[in-house]
From TrEMBL:
Top EC class, one word: transferase
Domain N-acetyltransferase: 1-151
Gene3D superfamilies xrefs: 3.40.630.30
EC number from the UniProt entry: 2.3.1.-
Superkingdom in the source lineage: Bacteria
UniProt name for this protein: GNAT family N-acetyltransferase
Listed GO MF terms: acyltransferase activity, transferring groups other than amino-acyl groups
Length: 159
């Protein structure tokens, strides 16, 4: 049985991840449990620069949609905050026994592809999205599948 944990020490000295939502699984929709964190400066938890979601578990949705989803507000882009957040979120994944994380993005989304690479993710494949999947219904026909190792988590690293 899945149990949400509490994480308050997710910082690399420049940014921090602040717990925002705990999203339970919805087996009917094929959704695994997920954490949502705000991305904030390490010295100002009141300023939200974006968010990152970690989906815990593996199924068809995490293959095509990824374990990690992120969004950085436009005025904060270009500072590698999403890549830093991806590195920090590995601590949460490790606490749930995950070994590898998938980050997916549209092949034409060059900034997101660069984020994956900065975070140390490797492009595994570019695959077709099946017509029954929600991404297909939103117009996505292909997705890049990047893989990132959860370990080592002791050293957050720099981007």
């Amino acid at each position: 049985m899945f149990v949400f944990q509490t994480f308050y020490d997710l910082t690399d000295g420049e940014i921090q991840l602040i717990p925002w939502k705990y999203i339970p699984a919805d087996e009917r929709k094929g959704f695994v449990p997920a954490y949502e964190f705000s991305i904030a400066p390490a010295n100002n938890a009141g300023l939200v620069m974006g968010k990152i979601v970690l989906r815990v578990g593996d199924n068809e949705n995490t293959l095509y949609g990824g374990h990690i989803g992120y969004l950085v507000k436009s005025k904060f882009r270009g500072n590698s905050y999403a890549a830093r957040a991806c590195l920090l979120i590995r601590k949460v994944a490790a606490a749930h026994g995950m070994k590898t994380l998938i980050i997916s993005c549209n092949p034409n989304n060059i900034p997101s592809r660069r984020t994956c690479e900065k975070a140390g993710a490797r492009l595994r494949d570019i695959i077709e999205v099946p017509p029954h999947h929600d991404l297909y219904q939103r117009g996505e026909r292909e997705t890049c599948i990047y893989e990132m190792d959860v370990q080592p988590i002791g050293e957050v690293g720099t981007v």
